[in-house]
Amino acid sequence: MTKKQVVDPIFPECPIRNIIARIGDKWSILVLLTLDETKQPMRFKALEAAIPDISQKMLTQVLRDLEADGLVLRHAYAEVPPRVEYELTDRSRSLLPHIHNLVGWALDNLSDIVKDRKAFMEKG
Predict the structure, then answer these.
(1) Coil, strand, or helix at residue 69?
(2) Which of 35, 52, 100, 115 is the most exposed place for a label (fewest CB within 10 A)?
(3) Looking at residue 3, what DSSP letter applies?
(4) pLDDT tens, 24-69?
C-alpha cells in the first residue's frame, strides 16, 4: 500500500477513494491544470515557476505520483545539463474536462460559499 492510498474500514477495496485521494490533494490538480494551459511539455523549473507556492520537494513528489498513475509522462534527455520535461497523457486529458467543470463550479459558487462560511462563523 502506498502512503497516499486511502483505505476505508468498511470498503477497504474501494478504488475510487484511492484515486480521489491521489488526484484530489492540494497540488495534483494545479500541476495538471498548469500542464494543460501550456499545451506542450514543460521543464521542472518552468512548472515550479508557474506554481510559485509549491516546494521543490512537493513538486517532485506530485510529479512522481502523477507519473505512477499514468497521468503525466516524464521525458529525460541525456544532455549536459540534464533536461527533463513533463507532459499530459491521454488519460489525464480525459480527466481535464471534469477538472475544468469543477473549477467552473467553484468559481460560480465562490462568493456564496464565502458568504455562507462567514455567516456560519458568526453564528458559532
Answers:
(1) coil
(2) 52
(3) T
(4) 888 999 999 999 999 999 999 999 999 999 999 999 999 999 999 9
CA 12/CA 7 separation, integer angstroms: 5
Return phi, psi of residue 42, to 5°.
-125, 145
Contacts 24+ apart (CB under 8 A), 52-56: 54/27, 54/30
> What Å distances lie between residue 33 and 17, 28, 72, 98, CA to CA?
21, 9, 12, 11
Cα–Cα distances (Å) from 115 to 7, 27, 42, 108, 110, in that order, read 34, 26, 38, 13, 9
| 51 touches 63 (CB < 8 A) | no
Note whether 37 and 93 are within 8 A (CB).
Answer: no
Q: Which three cell numbers stand for residue 40?
A: 506542450
Cα separation, 117 vs 13, in Å, equals 35
pLDDT digits 0-9 by tens, 69-119: 999 999 999 999 889 999 999 999 999 999 999 999 999 999 999 999 999
